[in-house]
Amino acid sequence: MSEPDSVEMASRRLAIALDALETAAELRLEAGRSEEALAAQIQALGSDRARLASELDRAAARANGLETANREVAQRLTAAIDTVRGVLTNGAAGALKSVGE
Question: b/e per residue, 77-100, with b = 16+ CB within 10 A?
Fold first, then answer.
């Protein structure tokens, strides 16, 4: 093999090696970007989780308050109905007494 042929072969091998190195570097950069994107997504998911947990706590507290208010209103309605029934019963009894007199 002549000297120019060996220089040419070495030059080709160097070009192939440089191409492979460039490809490996690009892959590594893409992997790094993917890792950064994944870390950003994990951060966003953590923030969303915290926000949703807070909203759930507020909604549960509101539901408990509404449930308590509902019970109180039901008790008041029951008492009002009983009062109206009592008035109607006493009124009817009073009306019957005055008719009988």
Answer: eeeeeeeeeeeeeeeeeeeeeeee
For 28-44, give the DSSP string: HHHHHHHHHHHHHHHHH
Amino acid at 66: L
Under the banding of pLDDT at 50, 70 and 90, the label for residue 100 is low
For residue 2, what is the DSSP state? -
Joined together, the tokens standing for residue 44 give 């966003």
**DSSP one-letter string for 71-82:** HHHHHHHHHHHH
Q: Which amino acid is at 92?
A: A
pLDDT over 70 (residue 93): no
